[in-house]
């Protein structure tokens, strides 16, 4: 895979396998959750990575974030990576948004005005500065996702990965998240969104990728991706029209 000076992430042959339970007398066999994945990201890409549940999206991103080691393959990173989990509650540790957003910078040894400035900027970016001292547990689902994102921003990550950011959100919540994604992209961040809900964000993307059964089966322009047989990869094409009540049936 060729690279240039704008490449901030390169994956070569990333494979992750897990041993299957077998009789002790039998040769060990494996389940390949990821199989020979190759991809590269450029600075300020906005990637939507589609795939059904179990396709390997979250696993691939935890490998990119350095939380899980691959069984084989190489990773080359020229940027810092932040991962916003599908369940933001696992990332929120502070009693208030202000306490929470400062945890990462404090662990890096930052103090005083620099610490205060980072926390203020991060909460302003996600629209939570007015709730800085509210109980974190009182925030809505969308606000919690924005708070988890603020924690990543306070660490000044260049590549931010969002794992199923629209899960369990209502329409206004989806709008808030999309406005945040647009803002971060305009500020020069590289964005990767993992989702099977393409209709909510594919129009924002500069690139579209599809992961199917642990393999990267498409990587190209969003418009080209919509011309593929997405259903064969267990994804419903978002361009399907809804004109009658029967169209609303998923069967």
Q: How does this structure look, described?
A:
27% of the residues lie in helices and 25% in strands. It contains 6 helices and 9 strands; from the N terminus they run βββαββαααβαβββα. The strands form 2 sheets. Strands 5-6-7-3-8-9 form a 6-stranded mixed β-sheet, sandwiched between helices. Strands 2-1-4 form a 3-stranded antiparallel β-sheet, with helices on one face. α2 (97-107) packs across α3 and α4 (141-154) runs parallel beside α5. The chain is globular and about 55 Å long. The relative contact order is 0.17.
Helices and strands in order:
Layout: E1 7-19, E2 30-42, E3 46-50, H1 57-64, E4 72-77, E5 81-84, H2 97-107, H3 112-125, H4 141-154, E6 159-163, H5 171-186, E7 190-195, E8 207-212, E9 215-220, H6 222-226
Helix pairs in contact: 2-3, 2-4, 3-4, 4-5
């Amino acid at each position: 895979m060729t690279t240039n000076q704008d490449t901030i992430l390169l994956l070569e042959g990333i494979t992750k396998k897990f041993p299957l339970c077998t009789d002790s007398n039998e040769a060990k066999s494996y389940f390949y959750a990821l199989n020979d994945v190759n991809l590269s990201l450029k600075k300020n890409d906005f990637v939507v990575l589609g795939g059904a549940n179990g396709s390997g999206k979250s696993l691939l991103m935890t490998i990119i974030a350095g939380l899980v080691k691959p069984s084989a393959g190489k990773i080359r990173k020229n940027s810092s990576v932040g991962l916003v989990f599908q369940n933001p509650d696992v990332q929120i540790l502070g009693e208030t948004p202000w306490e929470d957003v400062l945890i990462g910078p404090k662990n890096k040894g930052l103090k005083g005005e620099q610490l205060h400035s980072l926390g203020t900027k991060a909460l302003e970016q996600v629209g939570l500065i007015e709730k800085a001292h509210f109980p974190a547990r009182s925030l809505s689902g969308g606000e919690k996702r924005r708070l988890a994102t603020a924690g990543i921003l306070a660490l000044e990550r260049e590549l931010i990965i969002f794992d199923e950011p629209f899960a369990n959100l209502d329409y206004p919540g989806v709008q808030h998240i999309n406005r945040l994604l647009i803002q971060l992209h305009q500020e020069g961040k590289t964005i990767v969104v993992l989702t099977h809900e393409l209709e909510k964000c594919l129009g924002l993307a500069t690139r579209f990728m599809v992961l199917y059964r642990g393999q990267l089966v498409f990587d190209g322009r969003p418009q080209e991706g919509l011309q593929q047989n997405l259903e064969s990869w267990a994804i419903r094409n978002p361009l399907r029209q809804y004109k009658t009540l029967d169209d609303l049936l998923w069967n």
